Amino acid sequence: MKWTPRTEYIKRIIFAHLIKKESMKLEALLLARCENKCELCKSGEDIQIYEVLPQQNGDAEDCIMLCNVCRTQVEKKAELNSGHWYCLSESMWSEVPGVQVVAWRMLNRLRNESWAADNLDMIYLDDETLAWAKATGDHENDATVELHKDCNGQLLQSGDTVVLIKSLDVKGSTLNAKMGTVVKNIRIVEDNTEQIEGKIEGQTIVILTRYVRKQGI
Ligand SMILES: [Zn+2]
């Protein structure tokens, strides 16, 4: 077949379709496996795919289904609530390696609590699964979670709207960033919990979290 922009276009559509079909197949497989319940805590609320990193084969074995409460804490987007994780004493016996991996990592993060330490003594991962569990180094962290917080200690997330509580002096700019300016759709700076990014008068600037107050939801 002679190449034309149209061939390329058709190829792209077929490819996108295949990917969509694959991901639908993956989701269907996972939903059947988890019976529409979070594979860690068995909640049926807001179940979504969580990819257990690092990916091994890129198939269902590499993914688990998590509820929103589990996922935000696993991904360190919410404070670790140890009471929620008593569920691990059951889910750590799952036959799904991905579930074993995440259970093991979470128990490690909670290891200062005796119930978690006891479970860590009991949990069994074969050598391959244990190597996978250790690969991210996540288990070496403790329960503390570094989160972006505003001047009142409210959790900040990308997409939030904030108000400046102090007029900002933006170097080399005539930007009018006065106290009280509303900044919509902020982005959190991933590796620095003291910084967010926001657009003021069409310009994206870095703002310190201590100078903003989150606007009511
Ligand atoms: Zn859950």
Give a description of the structure:
With 217 residues, the chain is α+β, with helices and mostly antiparallel strands. The protein folds into two domains: 105 residues, no CATH class; 53 residues, SH3 type barrels (Roll). It contains six helices and eight strands, in the order αββαααααββββββ. The strands form three sheets. The chain has a three-stranded antiparallel beta sheet with strand order 4-3-8, with no helix packed on it. The chain has a three-stranded antiparallel beta sheet with strand order 5-6-7, with no helix packed on it. The chain has a two-stranded antiparallel ribbon with strand order 1-2. β6 and β7 form a beta hairpin. α4 packs across α6. It is flat, with a radius of gyration of 22 Å. The model has no long low-confidence stretch (mean pLDDT 90). The chain binds zinc ion. Zinc ion (ZN) binds next to α2.
Layout of helices and strands, plus pairs?
Blueprint (H helix, E strand, L loop, with lengths): L4 H30 L13 E4 L11 E4 L1 H7 L13 H4 L5 H13 L4 H9 L4 H8 L27 E3 L17 E2 L3 E2 L6 E6 L2 E6 L3 E3 L3
Antiparallel strand pairs: 1-2, 3-4, 3-8, 5-6, 6-7
Q: Spell out which ligands are present.
A: zinc ion
* Largest pleated sheet: 3 strands, antiparallel
Q: Low-confidence runs (pLDDT<50, min 5 residues)?
A: none
SS-based structural class?
A: alpha+beta
Main-sheet strand order equals 4-3-8
| Percent in helix | 25-40%
Distance between the termini: 55 Å
Q: Radius of gyration, Cα only, in angstroms?
A: 22 Å
Count of individual beta strands: 8
Q: What is the strand content?
A: 5-15%
Tell me the number of helical segments per DSSP (H or I, 4 or more residues long).
6
